[in-house]
Write a sequence for this structure.
């Protein structure tokens, strides 16, 4: 019995455009709710949300019954963190702050079993192998793991071609907020210079044969990104959806009393 088929990875390989949403509430109940919304993929965020291994595990469990594919963003590209989320059952991992090809090559090793990588062979104990029920997990897991790296700095953009040349990277996500800050435009990812850098990078990634990704909550930018070649496109975040809707509702009724 082989490792579970990664439908998200297959969709990217086939050149499909898939739409996702960020999960920052770090709660299984809200994650289960988001899993019913109809997104192709959902990011369990370990970088900017108060998640730990157990809360990530819980969200992976509730999304198992969902048609939305779970992507886990680790807080940093550390071997032990990647090992833990993979054993917990994640098949797609998003790694922030990748600035060069050496980092990318190490990440490929981190998600791969020996002799090609250094992922620890303890799958018999893990949820990833359904607690040893998937007898061929060790022989088939590598093919179903999807590795996405975030390029979100001026240095990363300068090394983009070298990163794209690393075999084993399935997709490259451009981080608009961090890139804008590094370019001197904190909080202004729509600045013309930032937008030019983003769209140019997406075009380059798409032309390389790897999947290009972006997070955008503005329709104009989202449309431009898709046109530039973005294929895994996050269009919102649970925190923002709740916060904005709550603020709008409060203001609507508060204003009637003024």
């Amino acid at each position: 019995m082989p490792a579970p088929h990664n439908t998200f990875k297959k969709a990217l390989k086939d050149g499909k455009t898939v739409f996702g949403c960020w999960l920052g509430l770090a709660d299984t109940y809200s994650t289960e709710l988001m899993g019913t919304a109809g997104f192709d993929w959902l990011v369990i965020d370990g970088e900017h949300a108060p998640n730990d291994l157990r809360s990530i595990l819980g969200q992976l469990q509730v999304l198992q019954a969902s048609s939305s594919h779970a992507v886990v963003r680790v807080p940093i590209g550390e071997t032990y963190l990647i090992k833990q989320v993979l054993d917990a059952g994640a098949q797609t991992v998003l790694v922030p702050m990748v600035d060069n090809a050496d980092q990318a090559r190490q990440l490929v090793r981190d998600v791969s079993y020996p002799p090609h990588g250094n992922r620890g062979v303890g799958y018999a104990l893990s949820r990833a192998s359904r607690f040893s029920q998937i007898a061929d997990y060790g022989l088939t897991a590598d093919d179903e793991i999807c590795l996405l790296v975030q390029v979100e700095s001026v240095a990363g953009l300068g090394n983009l071609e070298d990163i794209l040349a690393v075999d084993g990277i399935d997709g490259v996500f451009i981080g608009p907020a961090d890139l804008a800050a590094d370019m001197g435009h904190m909080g202004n990812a729509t600045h013309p210079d930032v937008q030019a850098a983003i769209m140019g990078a997406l075009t380059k990634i798409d032309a390389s044969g790897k999947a290009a990704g972006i997070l955008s909550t503005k329709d104009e930018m989202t449309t431009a990104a898709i046109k530039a070649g973005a294929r895994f496109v996050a269009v919102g975040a649970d925190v923002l959806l709740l916060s904005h809707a709550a603020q709008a509702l409060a203001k609507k009724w508060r204003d009637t009393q003024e």
